Amino acid sequence: MDDPRNQPNDQPDAGGLPPPPPPRRPRRPPPNPQQRGRARHRRDSGLYLPLWSILLVIVLACAVTAGVVFVVLNLGGDNQRVVDAQGTPLPPTQPPPVLIVSSPVPTERPADFPVSPATATIPPEFDLQSLFQLPPDFSLAGPTLPTPVLTPTPIAITIGAEVVVFDLGGQELNVRDSPGVFGTSILFRATEGERFVVVDGPEQQDNLTWWQIQSVGQRSQVGWASGQYLQAVPATQ
Predict the structure, then answer these.
(1) Torsion angle, alpha carbons of 186, 192, 196, 200, to 10
(2) Whole-angstrom Cα distance, residue 77 to residue 227?
(3) What is the spatial distance between Cα 234 and Cα 163, in angstroms, rounded to a whole number?
(4) Which of 96-105, 126-135, 216-225 has the lowest mean pLDDT?
(5) Is the N end or the C end of the chain the one with fewer CB atoms within 10 Å?
């Protein structure tokens, strides 16, 4: 009789469940054929250079540049270095300066060459006044301006001023009993050039300025007249 410990344990455990299956390895996804094609295309191209070749070119270029600089510096320093018999470097010597002197070449003077400089002379028949003399028929033409007429500055009419009647056009000035044209009575009529003394005013009526005047020759003639036909005169006249 076999040992029951060596028999496979196909029986469920105490809980009544079968044992779990062993874990499986994760499968690697298959490579993408498109990516493989791109990498292969870059390698097959004629312009493809591996990284090590690019680094090698850079190193060679740096080495060549350093060598050229070293050679140029050594050649330039050796040509300008001067040493004595003991090998001590001497300061560089400068070539002596070259002086260029130019001497003028004398020229022969002609026999008729004037000794003194020539001076300008004016012939006696030349008249300077003829340059500035205007012809007899020369005249300035322009518009004819009217003769200015000087008029005295009008004097303002005030109480106590002496006025004269003017600008009637051949008619007479109505002197009324009160200011205004309508509803008033005419006391007398004054002629042009007659003088009066202002005793009162001004008053605004019917769009006119009225002054009360008194005749210089007849003190009894007193009334209101329009200031449009009165002009103040200086006291000396």
Answers:
(1) 50
(2) 119
(3) 9
(4) 126-135
(5) N
| Amino acid at site 39 | A
Question: Considering only CA atoms, which of 202, 90, 98 is closest in space to residue 156?
Answer: 202
Backbone angles phi, psi at 93, to 5 degrees: -95, 145
Alpha-carbon radius of gyration of the chain = 69
Matching CATH number, 162-232, of 3.30.460.80, 2.30.30.40, 3.40.50.300, 3.60.40.10: 2.30.30.40
120 to 64, 117, 123, 130: CA distances (angstroms): 82, 10, 10, 20
Backbone angles phi, psi at 189, to 5 degrees: -120, 135
Q: How many CA atoms lie within 13 A of 220 on its CB side?
A: 0
Q: pLDDT of 85-130, one tens digit each? A: 666 766 666 666 777 776 666 666 655 555 556 666 666 665 666 6
Q: Do the Cβ atoms of 172 and 189 come closer than 8 Å?
A: yes
Domain ranges of the chain: 35-83, 162-232
